[in-house]
Amino acid sequence: MKIALMMENSQAGKNAMVAAELNTVAGGLGHDVFNVGMSDENDHHLTYIHLGIMASILLNSKAVDFVVTGCGTGQGALMSSNMHPGVVCGYCLEPSDAFLFNQINNGNAISLAFAKGFGWAGELNVRYIFEKAFTGNRGEGYPIERAAPQQANAAILNNVKAAVSKDVLEGLRSIDQELVKTAVGGARFQECFFANCQVPEIAEYVNSLLK
């Protein structure tokens, strides 16, 4: 699985620590990790709004399979991500959130709070969240006797979102193009995207913004 980590301006100072924990857990499980957001406070400037755009482009182009995002509270990155078609983002404050999202909702992104409640042993909480997010079989339900209705409801929710969403490219073209241009402007994002994008139309669109 290819996993993208993206962090915005307010929490960029924690990127090295979060990336190290994600690489330890996910890399140790054989997944590829791409650090595509801000690596420090002086890096290519991003807000949680840009993170949602980045998640949409990476997931809908199949450049990555999963996104780890977040902001100070995790709420902005969550809302920004879930606005886009093809992105199903869960809110994880503790490891049990990641486990339940993994088993019940089986989405393709998680949003973490990197400031709220992030104190002593914060790096351990992040590590354990990643362990629960990326270990075991996904979508099996919890408790197990509720597996069938949970799997059915998760599929229905995805179908509802697909029905009410615009086509991904139509949606991206409908918003402020400067927002999208900034979102795709980072060198590490471009490296991950162009090396792994499987949808030529999305690649062409991103290329048009970078000319």
TrEMBL record:
InterPro entries: Ribose_5_isomerase_C, RpiB_LacA_LacB, RpiB_LacA_LacB_sf. Keywords: Isomerase. Residues 164-209 form the Ribose-5-phosphate isomerase C-terminal domain. Transmembrane segments: none annotated. One of its GO terms (molecular function) is intramolecular oxidoreductase activity, interconverting aldoses and ketoses. GO terms for biological process: carbohydrate metabolic process. Signal peptide: none annotated. Belongs to the LacAB/RpiB family. This is Ribose 5-phosphate isomerase RpiB. It comes from Vibrio xiamenensis.
